[in-house]
Amino acid sequence: MFVAVVFSSCQRQADPVGVWRGKIKNNSGEEVAFTLEVKREGGKLVGSLVNGDDRTVSTSGSFEGNTLKLRYDFYDAELDAAIDGDELNGNFTRQWKKQKLERKLNAKRETGAAGETQTASNASTDISGEWVMRVGEEPKISYWRAAIQQKGQQGSRVQGTIIPLSGDWGEMTGSFENNQLTLNRFDGINCRVFKATLTPQGALEGFVDFGLFDPKRKVVAERLTAENKASVANLPDPKNYTRMSNPAEPFRFSFPGLDGKVVSSTDERFKNKVVVVTMTGSWCPNCYDEAPVLQEFYERYRGQGLEVVALAFEYTGDAARDTEQVKVFAKRLGVTYPTLYAGGIDDAEKKLSQLVNFGAYPTTIYIGRDGLVKRIHAGFEGKATGARFTRLKAEMEELIRELLSTKDS
After folding, report:
1. pTM surpassing 0.85?
2. The CATH number of the domain covering residues in 243-405
């Protein structure tokens, strides 16, 4: 009888429900802070990867013995970890191109009040605002934006995002103490960290780690101020970066839809219509941000002559597997416009040979009623970018309305 009581007590201690905070290791060896919140909802086990107000929620979960398994179908990913008391150890595995990418993780159960106050010796230093980042070293230099906001009474808690041409990295969280900045994000796809030191000259110097197989990149960032706007000239314009190799010819596509039927740019349904074509992927977090916006416009303006089409380029190139992933993507987001399986990402450049400087997902093409491309926008700035997201959404709608109002646009 005594043994049974002890066993029952141990089982209760192994309950996975709660908030877990820990580190997940990148291939570079760099560790990224993450938060996992596990709940039971309607008899189901649900695990959310938490980044500020942003949550990546599992599609299924189980807990047997001391093993927690959480499945994230939309990313073809799984968390598999053992719980020992208040410690969790295991792996997060997901599909990456044609291989499985596995990362080790360790976390401890949060037992006190969340978000405890931190002391900061540099409380008077405010790094909130926009920054222009010089990323990499010669001869390969890129220019990105960063948006940072300090939180809390001492200003040591930090939220923000990094915005390359390809689109933002989503909401990132971290700290700024003793002139040391750290911003982390782990959402199942992105496992990224930005670490930098605030120099006496007011610059942020450090590195970004993408969390994949490419090396860390050196970063020097300077604050964007009214007196220092010259640095913006180095930032590529997402509205002009990708272009048609021949603007006088129509953009062409012909790929199978999720029902297997081929949809082509020459189909009658697109004749004399305004068509928005987006290059997307079920593996692309920014595409999850863009799709609801396009769905909103599709519902609002379809009756006036708007068509939206998504061309999905997936990781493996295995049509059966990839098509299932795209179906999950479309269903999760409530997409009703045609979503076509265009093939593997390795073939995208060849299949999109009409485009110059293509590489960002999503990349969105706006086609007028005359069948010609009017604008191509590389990347997408989501909700984590705040006012930039609001402005981009307004610009998209304004362009769509303008093209719809022109008979020969």
Report:
1. yes
2. 3.40.30.10
